[in-house]
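Need the bound structure for zinc ion, inputs here:
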Amino acid sequence: MDIETITAAVGGLKYVKNTFSYLHTKTIDSESKKKVEEALEKFGDIQNALYSLREENFSIQTKNEELRKKLSTYENWEEKISSYELTESPGGAIAYYFKDDPQHYACPSCANNKHELHILPNGDCIGQSACPGCKTPFTIS
Ligand SMILES: [Zn+2]
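Answer from helper R.:
Posting the output first, comments after.
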């Protein structure tokens, strides 16, 4: 049930409730008045249930939107990481190697744990460098 349907139901219920409230103000026999009061009480219960449904629906829609975004990020990630392969660099580091140009390596920890690609610098004169994301040392070249 979408939010417009719930809002329409609340509006329709409000109209019926107002009609019964109007009838209640009119001079009617006590038995009818009691029935109208019972009906008004039931309308109140239904109205509260609809308000709860509307809140729950809003909450579900918000969660759904979050999950759609996560799924989209995941789908984009699969495409990105497919351009890399886990391999051993000339310096002995295990890292993701970019299969196209420009050639580079990316940190496997950041890729696997955070779905982030951090390019590993070639390093200093002895080939030592650190991931810009997690600071893990690597010997690429
Ligand atoms: Zn890293």
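Comments: The two ends are 59 Å apart (CA to CA). Strands lie at 84-88, 94-98, 105-106, 119-120, 128-130, 137-139.
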